[in-house]
Automatic annotation (TrEMBL), chain A:
The protein's name: Cytochrome c-type biogenesis protein CcmE
Organism: Echinicola pacifica
SUPFAM superfamilies: Heme chaperone CcmE
InterPro entries with a match to the protein in the record: CcmE (IPR004329), CcmE-like_sf (IPR036127), NA-bd_OB-fold (IPR012340)
Domain of life the protein comes from: Bacteria
GO biological process, any: protein-heme linkage
Any one GO molecular function term: heme binding
Keywords recorded for this protein, A-Z: Cytochrome c-type biogenesis, Heme, Iron, Membrane, Metal-binding, Transmembrane, Transmembrane helix
Regions that span the bilayer: 6-26
Annotated Gene Ontology cellular component terms: plasma membrane
Length: 140, 830
């Protein structure tokens, strides 16, 4: 066999390893119920859950509890299936948190009741949107 | 103007095409014609930029772009960043750079001008179309930056008054209000724009069947893009390090990856191109890589701007509905490139010679392959959202999400690739300069190997690196530095600095590797929370709390330091350093305040009491954090925070730079500072000289003083004004509070004393002259605090120095290769 072929095979092998680990390490978007099933089956891999904060009739966020030393908090999140879940986050509350339209939590169940987020991504109202503008224009 | 630019770009492309294809005799006139059109294009492109800047500079808020990206409070240099904050502005920046590069190429080329400029003008036409803003039916071509606000927003105000112009814009994203953001985007875009040059040369070469000759002019430009793009990326990393609060310079965010991947490929293409010049191999690989780097830049643009990244990235642009257009752009050039290279494929000379293990071609090729694999490993997971979008477009359901811990995921590969690269550069450089066989190789490598082993051992014992992986990285980095330095010395002895580009750049690589290893691997969070104020859930012990709560003036032990938060500060125009908010009273005007005390810094008086002062961006507060060691103040940091109405709390860290490490501090949460909520009245009856507890504070009432005059009040005959002097003790601080009691006839006036830091408002309720007793009413609110995080980043300077060395290497290489091109051109060969 020629050296070129060996190198070629080596490259292909590494590429395959990369693809497989990428797939293996890729997380997935789940709902709280499927996440719980996974946790019950002993699967502790972190997953993504997309949802929004629980709000009351007037639109204020409910269920947000900040710890006494202000360095962590829990909140209630509703996923896209409508399941409510308490989520714990070991960081101070991001300041625009309550205004977020959509949140993505990345984490796993640590106990039966509590989903622990390693990371929270938020989608906030964009300033390109008209409704946002109306507010601003009205105050001017 | 935009339309002129668009049309002239198309005309230029067409006329340059003519110029390239027509017979020799007509060339002169076609060239003149083409050049005129390119100049028209250049002038209109530059005027677009000037006009847009003018709109921002003069606060023409009737324009949507100015309204949404600028505001009156911004200083001039941030107006420049407003310019490219939006997508349209950044496209204009790109167009602008391409125009400059195009003008440069027209005047430095002879035979290449025609075909190269065809490609150039086509790219320009596509870019200009992105800001065209023409709507034909449902089809939207481009998004113009010159749209009027009233055409965009459906606000009711425009029904009432169509000429309504908002008084102020919404301002620049505070994260971008940083000096690095003024220079990072132009550098990055120059990098992006310059990738077009080697691509254009390649296309020209394939088209005019000069399959080999394109390498020479393209090479300096490829190195140029690599260095500029690299510099742009590093500036971005540095910006992230000093402004963003994720505690590092690199986060493997899709947007970052999107610029890193093309850079890797550009670097790989440099290597194969140099190999080709030396030994006529690797031509096909070079062609593929040069096409790939340009396409990847377009792909990166698509990823960042199409909104496809959506919820995976923190800083992608919003979708302007241009993704389709970007895709057309991407596919057009991809197909043209593939078509041209496929047509030329069989005619491209290759060498059938099998590369020997002891040849430099072999090692450089392995190096380029490693770079390619690195790029592949990053681009694959980054494209997961694209994959999902494709599956969904075909009606499928895909719920693949990017890796949960991106940093760990990418690092575990990239680190080892980095090690491989470092070793390859060391060995490869030896092959490069000398013909090698087994024994010669052994002889050449043995000394650097031993030296680097010794150095590594020394570093390991000095810095206590006991992790096996990190030891290997350190070893690889040191080996590269030592081996390349050996070569550098040899080159400098024998010939000129001109040839030293490669070894310099590789030394830089070794330093970067070591710097990254230390600053990331040994990054140490020192603000570990031991307050014990947790929910006390069993699993919570596993989680480290990486933030601490600091009450004002109350010291907290943090590793080697005692840390005290001292309150908020502002920056003032004309005053060095920071000024406490307690010395300022905000005025209604933007960025204006009244000094309530003399402002003295280092013994020099800058403003007197009652002066009006200019605040540099009123929204920004700087939180004074003092670091003590052994009761001695070592240094003070001022991390910045800005509560932003649209984006929440925006924080910028402050770092103490030591030679061997950085101490990095950023604010995670602050006490809201607007109108405080005051608690219930609490009454106190005290006589002068008495000490009592005012809420939580020990306080001495020093006595009352009858005032002759009172600021802000015109004292009349018979008025009595009494100022009470209170001294409040908070830890090591004494704070004076002086409420005033005023009697005029039957009326009384109370002027309370307020201290926001302590959250105390106190006023004199009554004075009984017989007993000399004062009655005070106190209301308390939240005492000021910050929640912050502090990290130690060791040897991060090695990283920054490494990047500088690498850029120097690139600069030397550009000089050398461009010089070669000029010489050949002047000989009339190109």
């Amino acid at each position: 066999m020629k050296k070129g072929h060996i190198i070629g095979l080596g490259i292909i092998a590494i590429a395959i390893v990369i693809i497989i680990t990428s797939i293996g390490d890729a997380s997935s978007y789940e709902s709280f119920s499927t996440a719980k099933e996974m946790a019950d089956n002993g699967d502790e891999d972190p997953i993504h859950v997309v949802g929004s904060l629980k709000k009351d009739a007037v639109g204020t966020v409910t269920g947000l509890e900040v710890s006494e030393d202000k360095t962590s908090f829990t909140f209630t999140m509703v996923d896209n299936d409508g399941t409510e879940q308490q989520v714990y986050y070991n960081e101070p509350v991001p300041a625009d948190f309550v205004r977020s339209e959509q949140v993505v939590v990345i984490g796993a169940y640590k106990s039966q009741e509590m989903f622990v987020a390693d990371k929270i991504l938020m989608k906030c109202p964009s300033k390109y949107q008209d409704n946002e503008f109306r507010e601003v224009a009205a105050t001017n | 103007m935009v339309i002129i630019a668009f049309v002239s770009a198309i005309v230029t492309a067409w006329s340059y095409y003519k110029y390239t294809t027509v017979a020799e005799i007509e060339k002169q006139s076609w060239r003149k014609f083409s050049r005129i059109f390119f100049y028209i294009h250049a002038v209109s492109a530059i005027s677009i930029a000037v006009v847009l800047f003018n709109i921002i500079y003069n606060f023409r808020f009737e324009y949507f772009y100015a309204y949404s990206h600028a505001s009156r409070a911004l200083p001039v240099h941030y107006m420049i960043s407003s310019f490219w904050e939006g997508q349209e502005g950044s496209f204009i920046l790109w167009i602008f750079w391409d125009v400059l590069l195009g003008l440069f190429l027209i005047h430095t080329n002879k035979s290449w001008e025609g075909p190269v400029m065809v490609v150039f003008s086509l790219v320009q036409a596509f870019l200009v179309s992105m800001i065209l803003g023409v709507v034909i039916g449902d089809l939207k071509i481009g998004s113009s930056p010159f749209i009027l606000l009233r055409d965009v927003a459906l606000a009711p105000i425009f029904d009432i008054n169509p000429d309504f112009v908002p008084a102020d814009g919404t301002g620049l994203n505070p994260l971008l209000q940083n000096i690095w953001m003024v220079i990072h985007p132009p550098t990055l875009f120059l990098g992006y724009a310059s990738t077009l040059v080697p691509f254009a040369y390649l296309m020209a070469g394939l088209w005019t069947k000069r399959y080999k000759e394109w390498i020479r002019p393209a090479l300096p430009w490829t190195i140029f893009s690599a260095s500029i793009l690299g510099m742009g990326i590093i500036m971005g990393a540095y910006w992230a390090y000093v402004t963003l609060n994720f505690g590092g310079y690199w986060n493997w965010d899709p947007v970052e990856n999107a610029s890193y991947v093309p850079w890797l490929i550009i670097v790989a293409s440099i290597h194969t191109m140099i190999t080709f010049k030396k030994s006529s191999t690797a031509l096909k690989t070079s062609i593929v890589l040069v096409i790939l780097q340009f396409i990847l830049v377009l792909y990166a643009t698509f990823l960042v701007r199409s909104g496809v990244l959506g919820d995976t990235s923190v800083h992608s642009f919003t979708d302007l509905g241009l993704s389709g257009q970007l895709l057309i752009y991407l596919f057009f050039f991809m197909f043209v490139a593939i078509f041209l290279s496929a047509r030329a494929w069989k005619d491209i000379p290759t060498s059938d010679k099998e590369a020997s293990v002891y040849s430099r071609e072999f090692w450089v090729f392995i190096g380029a392959t490693t770079l390619g694999l690195m790029a592949f490993q990053v681009i694959l997971p980054t494209s997961i959202p694209v994959f999902n979008a494709i599956v969904e477009a075909f009606g499928g359901v895909s719920n693949v999400a990017p890796p949960a811990d991106q940093v760990e995921f990418y690092t575990k590969f990239q680190l080892w690739f980095g090690v491989a690269l470092a070793l390859l550069t060391a060995v490869g450089q030896f092959f490069w300069w000398k013909k090698m066989d087994k024994t010669a190789l052994k002889n050449a490598l043995v000394t650097p190997y031993i030296v680097s082993l010794l150095v590594t051992a020394l570093i390991i014992s000095l810095t206590k690196v006991y992790d096996f992986t990190y030891m290997i990285i350190l070893m690889a980095g040191t080996f590269t530095i030592v081996a390349n330095s050996t070569i550098l010395v040899k080159i400098l002895k024998k010939s000129s600095l001109k040839l030293a580009g490669g070894s310099l750049a590789h030394i830089g690589l070794g330093m970067i590797l070591i710097g990254v290893m230390f600053s990331s691997g040994y990054s140490d969070v020192i603000s570990i929370n031991n307050s014990g104020l947790t929910y006390k859930r069993d699993w919570e012990d596993e989680l480290n709390k990486e933030n601490v709560l600091l009450w004002i003036n109350k010291p907290l032990k943090m590793k080697d330091y005692d840390v005290v938060y001292r309150g908020r500060n502002k920056k003032l125009k004309g005053v060095p350093g920071y000024v406490s908010v307690n010395k300022l009273e905000e005025l209604d005007q933007v960025n204006k305040a009244l000094a309530t005390e003399d402002i003295v810094v280092d013994g020099e008086k800058y403003f007197s009491k009652g002066d009006e002062v200019d605040i540099i961006l009123n929204e920004n507060s700087y939180f004074q954090i003092e670091y003590y060691q052994d009761q001695e103040l070592k240094f003070t940091l001022y991390p910045m925070s800005q509560p932003n109405p649209t984006m929440g709390l925006i924080s910028s860290p402050d770092s103490r730079h030591f030679i061997d490490k950085d101490l990095y501090t950023h604010i995670s949460a602050i006490n809201s500072y607007g109108d405080p909520e005051w608690g219930d009245d609490q009454g106190y009856e005290v006589v002068p000289g008495e000490q009592f507890h005012l809420g939580d504070y020990v306080t001495t009432f020093e006595g009352g003083e009858v005032l002759e005059e009172l600021e802000g009040v015109n004292l009349q005959e018979g008025d009595i004004a009494v100022k009470a002097h209170l001294l409040v003790y908070d830890n090591d601080r004494e704070i004076k509070l002086d409420p005033v009691f005023l009697i005029r006839g039957n009326q009384i006036g109370k002027i309370p004393a307020i201290n926001h830091d302590l959250g105390v408002k106190i006023q004199v309720e009554n004075i009984s002259p017989e007993t000399n007793q004062f009655v005070f009413t106190m209301n308390s609110s939240q005492k000021d605090y910050v929640v912050m995080k502090a990290l130690v980043k060791p040897y991060i300077n090695v990283l920054w120095m490494g990047t500088i060395v690498m850029l120097m290497g690139f600069a030397v290489a550009i000089y050398r290769r461009y010089d070669e091109f000029v010489k050949m051109r002047d000989k009339g060969l190109e």
